[in-house]
Amino acid sequence: MNIQKPKGTNDLFGAQMTKREHILQIITKILNEYNYQKIDTPIFENYKLFDRSIGEQTDVVNKEMYDFLDKGNRHMALRPEGTAGVIRAYLENKLYANPIALQKYYYVGKMFRYERPGNGRMREFNQIGVEQIGPYTYINDVEVLLLAQKILNALNIDVQLKINNLGDTNERKGYIAELVKRLTLVEDRLSNDSKRRLKTNPLRILDSKEDNVEELIEMIDINDYLTIESKQYFEQIKIHLNNLGVNYIVDSKLVRGLDYYTNLVFEFVDKKTNLTILGGGRYNHLIENLGKIQMPSIGFAIGLERLEMLSKIEFEPSSVDYLIGSLDTNADSLMLQIAQTLRNNNFKVEISNATTNIKSKYNLATRINSQKIIFVGAKEVEKQKIIIKNLKTKEEEEIEVSKLNEIK
Ligand code: HAM
Q1: CA of 301 to the centre of ligand 1 (A)
Q2: Ligand 1 center to 346 CA (angstroms)
Q3: Distance between CA atoms of 264 and 141, rounded to whole angstroms?
Q4: Looking at ligand 1, which residue's alpha carbon is closest to its atom 8?
Q5: Measured between alpha carbons, how far is 389 from 52 in angstroms, rounded to an integer?
Q6: Average pLDDT of the residues of the chain
């Protein structure tokens, strides 16, 4: 039996891997400009962490979690997202004791969701995400949006930014109650999924793919339920985005699939495919709920597979500087010595031993995109001189082995 990779997972290698590395390099350079610090947390955590942070009634926890009992009978889960783990680490390691009030972390890693694979959806996928933990001002929200936009621009993706204000947990209670009241009146016209959500997670009915809420009920505006401060906070974000020339639309149906969000939520959606590449928002009570410390936060995550699929950046194919080919087993040692010297001088070097002939060494040089080639045989061993052939210009240069160190 041929064992194949599990459904919804991917093997990454070759040009795809080169693209991933290149994209990550661009993103981490930008994160560095914004002074983010890298953090790494476990791929599996206690099930309760996700249940209590993302919300037990969300699809992510309720339907899509890879959870299991370990050999010690502990209920564990593969992480479906990165925020919960970062916040757990923040609390567990007392990172709040750091005198720097605003803490900015980023992470790169695998996430797991038991979703139906296809159209940019995987069961194992990679995210790069950021979490900004600290004082609650709209300037932080604007900075996070600018960072997200800068990353997507650098990767040449044509996106639309959508934002919404979900208000604080208490503020939106009245709104949710009114929404439930109106939707209950048309309950028999709702899909089974929305009927279930009416009891468990009514806000999510707003972004249902099956039911168009606007056609079913007279819509209510969440703004009518928010406090003046909450409205002003959102207005300030919009004013700054306008001043900075950031294009966005306010989408009152944008609610996002994780329960921890409060106030600003946002998504960057690819204009052509309508796929969400980046999603995030503010979560002012998550830390309090998990660790009894009042610490507002905001963050986002980008799906790397979607990014790679949609990014139109051009990148150089991988290449090597030198291929050293031995033509005689007696020259293998010289081949290794030359490779070592060049690598010590920071050149990228590949070798090819005496088992293949000149023709196949040239073929290899083409395949690995080598800039130069050096052949070593009995003559080179004897004279301790070699010829470096530039495969692009066809120029040849003779050099003593002892002078190889001087090559720049
Ligand atoms: P999310 O919207 O669930 O947010 O995921 C963020 C991004 O991960 C999505 O926009 C998408 O690009 C990618 N993604 C999600 N699910 C899949 C999947 N099944 N297959 C492929 N890509 C996927 C979060 O995860 C939050 N933790 C973001 C955040 C950070 N909010 C605050 N801080």
Answers
A1: 6
A2: 38
A3: 8
A4: 303
A5: 64
A6: 95
